[in-house]
Amino acid sequence: MARITLDNLAHSYLTYPRGPEDFALKELNHDWADGEAYALLGASGCGKSTLLNIISGLLIPSQGRVLFDGRDVTTAPTAERNIAQVFQFPVVYDTMTVRQNLAFPLKNRGMEAAEIARRVQKVAAMIDMEAQLDRKARGLTADAKQKISLGRGMVREDVNALLFDEPLTVIDPHMKWELRTQLKKLHHDFGHTMIYVTHDQTEALTFADKVVVMHDGRVVQIGTPQDLFERPAHTFVGYFIGSPGMNLFDATLDATSNGRHARIGDATVDLTQPYAATGRVQVGVRPEFIRLAAGGDGIPAQITRIEDVGRHKIVRLHAAGRDISALIGEGEAIPADTDRITFAPQGVNVYADDWRVAPGGESR
After folding, report:
1. Sign of CA pseudo-dihedral 63, 68, 70, 72
2. DSSP 277-339
């Protein structure tokens, strides 16, 4: 295992980048702790695979350094980094059997035959391919081949890091859950540093100790799933994490109350704490913290539709000039004459130019 340090790292695919907009990966400084499981999460084109390929050695960055346990490996080839990487689409040796494919990285390292057999058998059980060990890879389905690729990554116990680039794209939904469970068990058993690229928030939140959320080539937040849900550091995190995502309301802070009150549309909302912010101010509230009311104080709102999804209802509303969502428990009544919404105080976040503001001051 290894601690991976990204020092002043940035990358542009242009020979002569002119500014930040020309960088696919904007400047990043971070330590990936030895033995932790990370997920790189973001929409397509946000820089996830670029960052992973720099860590793996498939790409040399335009600026900055990559260090493994303090050793500079920025220009070192992949083979010298002692990593295992699994790609989005399966890479297998069609002329070999499943057993030979799984054993290949171990044989290359001169491991004893008995130990190779033990590890291959163990991994074959993890990926549910024990019955196919002596079958040639040629002719297997795409998801079976991807399981072989995953197995080749998992069969080594001495790697500095395991890197996964959207490895479950071609896997059927039930097997996705099984393989994520096995990857978590592998991490628990052997403590590998793991970095898992995905655009699927369910995969990221169920796999990782910490999730690295990327947007437009920039890391906008690194945190636990709970951090991302309760305190999104950027409006993109609030929008991208959660289903439905966070509601955002344009707001003006009231200076006479030291920023404790905000004007949203025609209503005044008590934020319960003072805030200081400049630029474009928004109040973010997840659907779980929207409360429906009939009459009284609150932001005028109109229900447009109700979606019953089983364990809860999603109430779609129009309020403060925009469409928003509220989550209501399955057994909770929805007032027929709902015409207002209010916010649960613990669910309020304030943003200035898309970055979260801490109570009492500005913070990124």
Report:
1. negative
2. --SSEEEEE-GGGEEEESSSSSEEEEEEEEEE-SSEEEEEEEETTEEEEEEEETT----TT--
Q: How is residue 364 written in tokens? A: 């990124």
Please tell me the pTM assigned to this model.
Answer: 0.85
Where does the chain have alpha helices with state H? 48-56, 98-107, 113-126, 142-154, 173-190, 201-207, 225-230, 235-240
State how far the Cα of 288 lies from the Cα of 291, in Å rounded to an integer.
Answer: 8
Both tokens of 83, joined, read 């990593």
Q: Taking a C-beta distance cutoff of 8 angstroms, is the pair 7, 67 a contact?
A: yes
Q: Please name each of the domains of the chain with its CATH number.
A: 4-235 (3.40.50.300), 243-357 (no CATH)
The C-alpha atoms of residue 101 and residue 150 are separated, in whole angstroms, by 11
Using one digit for the tens of pLDDT, what is the confidence trace for 167-203? 887 777 777 777 777 777 777 777 778 899 998 888 8
Kindly report, residue by residue over 7-19, the tens digit of the pLDDT: 999 999 999 998 8
Q: Which pair of tokens denotes residue 234?
A: 């950027």
DSSP 260: S
C-alpha gyration radius of the chain: 24
What tokens does 54 get? 């720099």
What are the tokens at 236?
A: 């993109």
SS3 59: coil
Two tokens, residue 252:
């003006």
Reduced to 3 states (helix: H, G, I; strand: E, B; else coil), residue 213 is strand
Structure tokens at 138: 């040629």
Report residue 128 as tokens.
């549910």
